[in-house]
Every structure is written in C-alpha cells, then in structure tokens.
Amino acid sequence: MTTAVSFRPRDLVVNEDGTGHLVGSRCPTCGAHYFPTRQVCAGCLTEDLETIPLPTTGTLYTYTVVHRSTPAFETPYVLGYVDLPGPVRVMGQIDAEPDDVEIGMTVELEIVPWGTDEEGTPLLGYRFAPGGER
C-alpha cells in the first residue's frame, strides 16, 4: 500500500489518522503571522521566524465562485479567504455549493486527496468545509 503525502509538506502536516493542520510563520519581534511559511518578516525584516501550527477552524472573510478553470477542476467551485485565529488569512477552496456559502460562516480545515505525483504516490491537500454556527 502506498502512503499518501502532502503536496505542500512545508505548509501542511498530515497525521496518520488523516487529520492535520496548516503550518504558518510568526514573527517574534512584531507578532505578524503568515501563511504560507516565510523566512523573513515583511513587517520588520526579522529573519528569525517561528514555525507554528495554525488553527483548523476559522471564519470565511470573502469568497468568489469560479465558473471557468483548468480541466483538472470541475466548475463551478467556491474559492475563499478564511480568517484563522492568530491572526492569519488563508486562501482555499470551500467545499460547499455556491448558494450555501455566506461571508462570516464558520469553516473547518479538511485534508483531501489532491492527485498523484510523477511516481504515482497519492498527494493530499486541504480545503475548508462549513463547520458549525455563524
């Protein structure tokens, strides 16, 4: 059996049970948070950023419905920005029908299959799904 791996191993940690979390950076000097991870703080130029696990639940800040895409993606689909406590804003696909999406709704991180690499190893990625009350 081939074990699946993250398509972004620096920014996505996947546990053996299929759960996981995103990984971001935090500047110890000015407190700025980033996703994806960075090596230098854009605010104060500190190069000593900490790597931190990001929360798995957030609030949908804004979204768009994509009607035209590459053949790899079935349309329409929802793409949004999610505010995670920290504070950090993450872009990702929202696993919901366009009519069911609202700004301000609570969403939760999901780890999902995302294709295969050149050797045929399954790749895992992330998206957000509705999760809980607004």
Number of strands: 10
Low-confidence stretches: none
The shape, in one word, is: globular
Major sheet attributes: 6 strands, mixed
**Domains counted in the coordinates: how many?**
1
- Strand arrangement, major sheet: 1-10-9-6-7-8
CA radius of gyration: 16 Å
Helix and strand element order: EEEEEEEEEE
What fraction of the residues are assigned to beta strands by DSSP?
Answer: over 45%
The structural class is: mainly beta
End-to-end span in angstroms?
Answer: 40 Å
Helix content: under 10%
Q: What is the count of helical runs?
A: 0
Fold and architecture overview:
The chain has a six-stranded mixed sheet, with no helix packed on it. Strands 2, 3, 4 and 5 form a four-stranded antiparallel sheet that branches. It is mainly β and 134 residues long. It has no helices and ten strands. It starts with a strand and ends with a strand.
